[in-house]
UniProtKB/TrEMBL annotation:
Keywords recorded for this protein, A-Z: Oxidoreductase
InterPro entries, per the entry: KR_dom (IPR057326), NAD(P)-bd_dom_sf (IPR036291), Sc_DH/Rdtase_CS (IPR020904), SDR (IPR050259), SDR_fam (IPR002347)
Protein name: SDR family NAD(P)-dependent oxidoreductase
First-level EC class: oxidoreductase
Occurrences of domain Ketoreductase (ranges): 4-182
Keyword DNA-binding in annotation: no
EC id: 1.1.1.-
Gene3D superfamilies: NAD(P)-binding Rossmann-like Domain
Organism: Lentzea rhizosphaerae
Family assignment from sequence similarity: Belongs to the short-chain dehydrogenases/reductases (SDR) family.
């Protein structure tokens, strides 16, 4: 595989950190983008400590000026971005009737607006190169989930963005796909456990019983799917959503 520059948003923890490490392990030069500069720095340090190439870039992906600056910084340090992984996101769960507008905006702006802004900021260089890979991190929640209307709407919108952008960018050698994780143990799992009124251990046991594969997912599981979409020979796969959830959904 040819070495490319990969930019991973939300790369400072959880799934994003796992994706960044896997991409670096294949020889890609990785820009670890995260709103928390210290977290991005720790991941980039780990990658460099293992012999990889990485820089940490702080960025709020919902801010267009910050996105433009982050892409410029990553490009200056590593070269033009060839692989974009839109992973940044968080949860502020509530039901449709109880959802504060501020929480709706915060979640939708990060997951959906942020992915759109990053795509717009990186795709021109991919178009000029005639090659690019964009992977959006969705969720099985895009298919519907109770008490988290903003998150579900954002992820469903992200899958729509994936399909629309795939059509627009295919003539330029750029593929756009999405990976939809199921239950994966990250910091967000703690939030989900608290929302369900369970300890983390109880929550993981309950969730595992509902998964046909019989276990909770890991960031590595999601990263491997991202690597498939980012591969040189995945050129004929675009506009697709792959749920990585331990069993069928939908």
């Amino acid at each position: 595989m040819q070495s490319r520059v990969a930019l991973v948003t939300g790369g400072g923890s959880g799934i994003g950190a796992g994706i960044a490490a896997e991409l670096a392990g294949l020889g890609h030069r990785v820009a670890v983008v995260d709103r928390v500069a210290e977290a991005a720095g720790e991941v980039a340090d780990r990658i460099r400590g293992e012999g990889g190439s990485a820089v940490a870039v702080p960025c709020d992906v919902s801010d267009p000026d910050a996105v433009a600056a982050a892409v410029a910084e990553a490009t200056s340090a590593l070269g033009p971005v060839g692989i974009l992984v839109n992973n940044a996101g968080f949860a502020k769960d509530n039901s449709v009737l109880d959802m504060p507008l501020a929480d709706w905006d915060a979640v939708v702006d990060t997951h959906l607006r942020g992915s759109f802004l990053m795509l717009q900021a990186t795709a021109p260089a991919m178009r000029e190169a005639g090659w690019g890979r964009i992977v959006n991190i969705s969720s099985i929640s895009a298919l519907g989930d109770d008490e988290r209307v903003n998150y579900v709407a954002a992820k469903a919108g992200l899958e729509g963005l994936t399909r629309a952008a795939a059509l627009d960018l295919a003539p330029h050698g750029i593929t756009v796909n999405a990976v939809g994780p199921g239950v994966v143990q990250t910091a967000m799992t703690v939030v989900s456990a608290a929302r369900a009124g369970r300890t983390l251990e109880e929550h993981l046991r309950v969730q595992a019983r509902s998964i046909p594969r019989g276990r909770i997912g890991t960031p590595h599981d999601i990263a491997r799917a991202v690597l498939f979409f980012a591969a040189e020979d995945a050129d004929f796969v675009t506009g697709q959503v792959l749920y990585v959830s331990g069993g069928p959904h939908g």
